[in-house]
Amino acid sequence: MSAAVIIVAVDGAAGSGKSTLARGLAQRLGVAYVNTGLMYRAVAAASIARGVDLDDAEGLVDLARGLRFRLEGDDPPTLEVEGYVPVDLTTPGVESRVSLVARHPVVRSVLRDQQRTLGATGAVMEGRDIATVVFPDAPLKLFLRADQMRRVDRRADERDADTNVVRDALERRDARDARTTPLEPAPGAIIIDTSDLSIDQTLDEALGAARRVWPERR
Predict the structure, then answer these.
(1) What is the dihedral of CA 103, 159, 46, 71, to 10 degrees?
(2) pLDDT category, 1, cuts 50, 70, 90?
(3) Is residue 136 one of the residues assigned to a domain?
(4) Rounded alpha-carbon distances, angstroms, from residue 125 to 58, 77, 81, 173, 211
(5) Rounded mean pLDDT of 130-145?
(6) In which band, very low, low, confident or very high, does the pLDDT at 20 lie, cut at 50, 70 and 90?
(7) Number of domains in the chain
(8) Does a structural domain hold residue 141?
(9) How far is residue 17's CA from residue 7's CA, in Å, rounded to a whole number?
(10) Cα atoms in the 13 Å half-sphere on the side-chain side of 195
(11) Residues sharing a CB contact under 8 Å with residue 120, sequence separation 6 or more, in sequence order
(12) Which of 26, 43, 140, 189 is 20 to 30 Å apart from 8, CA to CA?
């Protein structure tokens, strides 16, 4: 992949600040923001609506192929799923299913093709396998980490939920995700520990890394 194309792969555990950073970085770099987790969430939501069993890989593939993804808006252009609004994709039912949907290689393969198309002209793309599988040659790879309680507090604030409930859910989510894609930085990734960083401080670190890769961008 040409380094002239701005592709930033952002990975890290839930609650580490991936989405906030990725959106802000996309805005500053003038490229699209793609949260690939929404794609798996959309399949999970569709499986609930259609009554498709989570062990039915081919049924889930059919659902994935029937979804329509697009980039909408500007500053930055952002991934949208036709027929769904964000609140549809963050329900407890979807949350409990998304890792079970993502564990199927055939589902990941279908969505991977869509992700490569969405990011072909430049994007900040977040997801567990972006830096290793979707865009393994991305010029910039960022891996965010944070201590567990900081992650729990952020997620509880984000979802306006009880801390204990969020902690239990995150532990289950981490365990399920680890079986699909180990939570480890990709080779060459820049690691940012966000435990004690503000949103602006995290963005500043990421922008510094981006300027080293694309010095002509201001």
Answers:
(1) -90
(2) low
(3) yes
(4) 26, 12, 15, 20, 17
(5) 95
(6) very high
(7) 1
(8) yes
(9) 19
(10) 7
(11) 5
(12) 43
Domain that holds residue 23: 7-207
Residue 85, token pair as written in the block: 């609004």
- My answer on whether omega of the bond before 215 falls inside 30° of 0, hence cis, is no
**Per-position b or e across 89-128, b if 16+ CB within 10 A of its CB:** beeeebbbbbbbbbbbeebbebbbebbeebbeebbbbbbb
The type of residue at 36 is T
How far apart (Å, rounded) are the C-alpha atoms in residues 76 and 162? 32
* Confidence band, pLDDT 50/70/90 cuts, at residue 218: low
Residues linked to residue 190 through DSSP beta bridges, in sequence order:
142
Helix, strand, or coil (residue 38): helix
Give tens-digit pLDDT for 155-179: 777 766 778 777 777 777 777 666 7
Residue range 48-97, pLDDT digits in tens: 999 999 999 999 999 999 999 999 998 899 999 999 998 899 898 998 89
77: domain CATH number is 3.40.50.300
Residue 217 lies in a domain: no
